[in-house]
Amino acid sequence: MTLAERVAKIEISLTPKQAVLLWLTEAQQVAGFRDWIAKNAETLCDAHPRAVIATKVANAVWDALCRKGVSLEAIKRAQLQARKQTDFLVTLALNVNQGRLAESEKDYLIMLSVSGQRLSMMERVVEHVSIDSEEWDAWRTMLIATLERLWGQQAAIAAISTEYYDDHQVLFANEAAELNNCIEVVKCSVRVYNTGKGVVPSWKAIDLAALRRSIEPQVRAAVRELVDRAKAEMLLAFGEVEAARRIAQAHLVAYADRQSSARVPHPPG
């Protein structure tokens, strides 16, 4: 389907989700979110997707309801609702990708540390070099915390894709592949760690299946945070400042609670 045909479909669609899915499909013709930003850098200020797609959807609502003889007041209400829903969906998709892009830059350094520590531990196990139990425990803690975070991100993005985008992968292909690669790097290190039975007295295997199940509350919280942030940004864009403030305030309180009890992983050594 050509770009012109996709645009035509958007212009006659009454469903914000349909319009946003068509935009996502077109945007993801480039492999990575970085590439999409670079490709659209010159037009984002004057023709941002939040404004362009919402306007097309509102125009479609106007045309369809006018033909049905709906009152002007009802049409305007429907247009506003359609604009808000469209803006929310576009904002959520952009935030998911921007968030993962920012995380990937930090994860590059973390993966170097994880891989380097894995090689060091493998050498010492093979050569029967004594390993300090505190160092081994610190490595275990870092692996668990890193895998929890990465799995949590992946699961939260999958849940959002299912619930809000009809199972369309909201993450661009490159960012999805980078996230999966990071997970595989950490899982490889976990497998190495799990060979340490008998090497260190305090050794305790990392149960990947149990760890995967344990992140469910974290995933639900991450989904709520991403969704509510997009809602707050949408409300601000439509001048509903107090409603946006209430959402933001609730998450500030929740964030403070999490920070007070958070475990901060540190690489061993």
Explain this structure to me?
With 269 residues, the chain is mainly α. It has one domain. It is 77% helix and 0% strand. It has helices spanning 3-12, 16-27, 33-40, 49-67, 72-126, 133-165, 173-193, 208-214, 216-237, 241-261. The N and C termini lie far apart (55 Å).
The shape is elongated
Radius of gyration (CA) equals: 23 Å
Poorly predicted runs are none
Largest sheet: none
- Average of per-residue pLDDT values: 84
Treating each run of at least 4 consecutive H or I residues as one helix, how many helices?
10
Overall number of domains: 1
Q: Which percent range describes the beta-strand content?
A: under 5%
Helix content: over 70%
Distance from N terminus to C terminus (CA atoms, Å) equals: 55 Å
Secondary structure tally: strands: 0
- Output the helix-strand order: HHHHHHHHHH
Class from secondary-structure proportions? mainly alpha
Summarize this structure briefly.
This protein has 269 residues and is mostly helical. It contains 10 helices and no strands.
Fold blueprint:
Layout: H1 3-12, H2 16-27, H3 33-40, H4 49-67, H5 72-126, H6 133-165, H7 173-193, H8 208-214, H9 216-237, H10 241-261
Helix pairs in contact: 1-2, 2-4, 2-5, 4-5, 5-6, 5-7, 5-9, 6-7, 6-9, 9-10
Annotation keywords:
single chain; 77% helix; mainly alpha; 269 residues
